[in-house]
Amino acid sequence: MIENHTYLxxxxxxxxxxxxxxxxxxxxxxxxxxxxxxKDYGDLSENAEYADAREEQSFVEGRILELENALKNVTxxxxxxxxxxxxxxxxxxxxxxxxxxxxxxxxxxxxEADPASGKISNESPIGRALLNRKKGDVVEVKTPKGVASWKxxxxx
Length: 156
Hints:
It is a single chain. It is built from 3 helices and 7 strands; from the N terminus they run E-H-H-E-E-E-E-H-E-E. The protein has helices spanning 10-39, 48-72, 125-130, and strands spanning 6-9, 74-77, 92-97, 101-108, 119-121, 138-143, 146-155. It is of the alpha/beta class. Helix 1 (10-39) packs antiparallel against helix 2. It folds into 2 domains: 6-76, Orthogonal Bundle (Helix Hairpins), CATH 1.10.287; 81-155, Transcription elongation factor, GreA/GreB, C-terminal domain (Chitinase A, domain 3, Roll), CATH 3.10.50.
């Protein structure tokens, strides 16, 4: 994979574009107005509102740069383009861990990863091990809890 390259599903791409638009159209002007109002309060060296607004501005500008860079180097993965039964980014797969525990999750790009919602990164140890494998394959994955055996039961 290309360094600094981002893989996104269509939904993830849309979500990042919407976040970027929101930050530029709404948050930037809102923070700018807060800074302007805080300046009117007087001495900036002891003005907590001004310091807070500047800190938020710094965070928002950093996030905007991060999103712009990610969207500039993006490949949108269309789940309909992948080969059937071969695990790819955007696929939802059901696996069996160590012959007992069944799990279903979707493999997504790192910017979309949210393990609590069942979305694991293609760059995670499990995601990397399962990519380009097929239904029925068993892979061993080194995880923080030790080596686990994962059998691919289905891909969608």
